[in-house]
Every structure is written in C-alpha cells, then in structure tokens.
Amino acid sequence: MQDRGVPRGRGRVLLVEDEPLISDIAAEALQEQGFEVETAANAGDALRRLAAESPVDILFTDIDLPGGMDGTALARCARRLRSDLPVIFTSGRYRLDASEAVAGAMFLPKPYDLNMLGRIVGDLVFKHEIAAAIA
Questions:
Q1: Are the C-beta atoms of residues 91 and 69 closer than 8 Å to each other?
Q2: Residue of 66, 60, 56 lying closest to 89 (CA atoms)
Q3: Residues 80-128: tens digit of each pLDDT
Q4: Measuring CA to CA, which residue among 9, 61, 59, 64 is closest to residue 32?
C-alpha cells in the first residue's frame, strides 16, 4: 500500500471511526506511512485517552459517531483538554466548514485517498511542531 512518492510520516494520530473496516484501513495506511496510530470507536473512548494524556499529535475523527457525541463535539472537548491539538474531520454523509466547528481544523470528505490523508496528517504534525518550537 505504501506509495514511494509519499514521504514517511512521524507523529501520533488518534483516529476516531466507528466503522471497523474503515478504521482498520485508515490506521494501516497511516502506520505504513510512518505514523503511530491509536484508534477509538466513539467519542467517549477518545476523550478518555486524551484525558489520560496519551501522546497524541493529531485528532482525526469521523463526524457521525455513536454514543451521543458527534465528532465536532468531540473536537471541542479535545481542544479544552489540549488547546493546540490539530483536528481533521471526515464524513461521507455530512459536509462541514471545519474551521467554523473548531478553529484551524480541516475537513477531508469520504472516500478519501489514503496517501492524501498521510500527506495532510504529516503537514499538520509538522506545522504543529514548528508552532510549538516558536512558542
């Protein structure tokens, strides 16, 4: 699955997706591109990991999640825990102006290209590292 034209990534991704097949495919693709990936099937699991201060460099979440909290509410809660956490939303059902939901967030519609996902994650992790180094 690794495309030789895709640079190796670094960083830790919290991938929140309730569809097991989609979660497995995205996690595997990101891992093959060099990222560490932790998965959660709902917002509650994701928030527990963030509250436990699991090392996470980026939140990649579906909007439509089970359990009473959608991806936008998850991202807002995550930002209260970690104000500078980069966020990418995804959905095959909804379209979203991501920056209106959470400042600086991005939206990647499903179905997404797995190499494109890796490039976006890598770019956001790099920008986050630069911002942290400057601060």
A1: no
A2: 60
A3: 999 999 999 999 888 877 767 899 999 999 999 999 999 999 999 888 8
A4: 9
Q: For residue 59, give the DSSP letter.
A: E
Which residues make Cβ contacts (< 8 Å) with residue 112, sequence separation at least 6?
90
DSSP assigned state of 112: -
Tell me how far CA of residue 83 lies from CA of 22, 80, 99, 118, in angstroms. Answer: 28, 6, 14, 23
Site of tokens 């976006």:
120
Domain boundaries, the chain: 12-134
pLDDT digits (tens, 9 = 90+) for 42-64: 999 999 999 998 789 999 999 99
Q: Which amino acid is at 85?
A: L
How is domain 12-134 classified at the architecture level of CATH?
3-Layer(aba) Sandwich (3.40)
